[in-house]
Amino acid sequence: MLDSKFIRENVKVVSENTKKRTGSDLIVKEFINKDKQLRELQLELDNLRHSRNKVSESINEAKKSGNNQLFQQKIKEAKELPEKIKKAEEKYGLLEKETKEILFKIPNIMHKNVPLGKDASENKEIKKVGQIPKFNFPIKNHVELAENLKIADFEKSSQVSGNGFYYIKKELALLNQALIRFALDSLSKKGYEYIETPLMLHEKEVYASMDRGAIEQSVYSIKGEGDLNLIGTAEQSLLAMHSGDTFSESELPKKYFSYSMCFRKEVGAHGINEKGLWRTHQFNKIEQFIFCKPEDSWKYYDDLLKNTEEIFQKLKLPYRIIEMCVGDLSSWKAKSHDIEVWRPTIKEYGEVASLSNCTDYQARKLNIKVMRDNNQEKQVVHTLNNTALATSRALVAILENYQQKDGSIKIPTVLQKYTGFKIIKALAIKPKSKTKIIKQKHPKKILEKKNKISKK
RNA sequence: GCUAAGGUGGCAGAAUGGUAAUGCGUCAGUCUCGAAAACUGGUGUCCUUACGGACUCGGAGGUUCGAAUCCUCCCCUUAGCGCCA
After folding, report:
1. CB atoms near residue A212 (< 10 Å)
2. What pTM, to 2 d.p., does this model score?
3. pLDDT in tens, A220-246
4. A294 CA to B36 C1', in Å?
5. Would you state the pLDDT for residue A375?
6. Rg of chain A taking only CA atoms, in angstroms
7. Which nt sits closest to A49, CA to C1'?
8. Of chain A residues 64-93, which have a beta carbon within 7 Å of strand B?
9. What's the ipTM?
10. What's the maximum distance between 2 C-alpha atoms anywhere in chain A?
11. Distance between CA A49 and CA A52 in Å, rounded?
12. Three-class SS of residue A58?
């Protein structure tokens, strides 16, 4: 949320920004109006309370001095006040709630360079990195590849949990763990602090990181457990970790990274009914998160992008960077870039990481501040986040980009020390159709191979 | 989960129905060539141009003219017991 005082003092800036982002600045006008009423009501309420405090004080004095007549008279006088105060309080509470709701709807002030555009189709491509692989054989998508290799089971998972879940098995599951370790090591070396967080949060903390719309579309809440919700990203739990804290200047920046499971409803999301690992209700993610002084946030923004790029470069996966245009920028962000990885099967880039500078918008909701050295003044900190690696999408990219003619999958070199194997070997026997069995020329060799594997 | 004791500013620690003592820390000023000590003033949030005022004792309600204090519900901490990956 924005600072009410800032809105009052910069109506023009906020209105223009809101209009640019949502097409209308009506909510700003509405806020100004409500906020004015609210402050008038507060003055009224304060005056009522003041007179109560005064009367109470005089009652106390009368009691102490033993002036019984005055005491009785004042009590009589005081008895009328609580009712009035209660009414004013109720009115105030209601108006305050309304005003806050509107305040939450006013979007963050964008960075001045955010490109114009209506929606995702108008996002700006910044650069492309890496060689797009060429295949001299018909390629398969990750679902076919994984099912043929029997390293994933999407039938069973949809049976037991519904669509959007997965069983990954054997080499694929180990590759998943290898990706996690690889990303953790990569960020550890950069001096970021590793954190493991709660996977459930109260509503207030979840709400701090995003807006109402995003929550309704993504957040799972736990039935019968008060207002507990599964996190959609460790961004939420990392932000909440410093809820209410005031840092000294020397403590900042706080650079964190975290590994967690993420849970998302994906209501209305395109592709949630598609089989596979690309869009799922549950996935593993290594997330980067920074709390910093306001003047430093753009510097760290670049760092966060570099860290993730480095990971994809080391995995030798072709990717591109795009910048979110106004129409595709979430309300709480000041600026955002995505990293998209190449998917040869659909001949498109697909989102694998999302970088954001939320400036002070998130931190204000949880009252996270920094005490300035010079003038002893507190200032709301800036928060930034970027995916380091969401493993399920990286798995898709690896399966599809590293597939071989025989259906086996090469393991990216940097991951081999974590997996312990260099290739996910194609299965020798394909018993599905008779013709294929006939085609197999060396059944002895196949048997030998099988024995070797089972010995391992 | 049970039992017991607790939860008051950055920290320690009083106030048991009369409007949050005090100490430490910290910041500023005086003094000093400078520092220390000493002294003086400030040190949570909000409203107000200001004068002022309101709020704040883990949270939410309630009783009362008035609640840190009494009542109800909830949360958390510590210790012991129980259960458990």
Report:
1. 12
2. 0.88
3. 888 767 678 899 999 999 998 888 888
4. 37
5. 61
6. 29
7. B54
8. 64, 75, 78-79, 81-82
9. 0.85
10. 115
11. 5
12. helix
Q: How far is the CA of A331 from the C1' of B56 (A)?
A: 33
Whether A227 sits with its Cβ under 7 A from any strand B atom: the answer reads no
CA A35 to C1' B4 (Å) is 49
Encode pLDDT of A276-286 as tens digits.
Answer: 999 999 999 99
CA distance A67 to A61: 9
Helix, strand, coil shares of chain A, percent, nearest 5, are 50, 20, 30
Q: Where does the pLDDT of residue A273 fall: very low under 50, low under 70, confident under 90, or very high at 90 and above?
A: confident
Expressed in angstroms, the distance from the first to the final Cα of chain A is 57
Q: Of A85, A92, A90, which is closest to residue A53 (Cα–Cα)?
A: A85
Alpha-carbon distance of A203 to A215, in angstroms, equals 10
CA dihedral of A361, A364, A365, A370, whole degrees rounded to 10? 130
Q: How does pLDDT run across A415-443, given as a tens digit for each residue?
A: 999 999 999 998 876 555 444 434 444 44
pLDDT at A135 over 80: yes
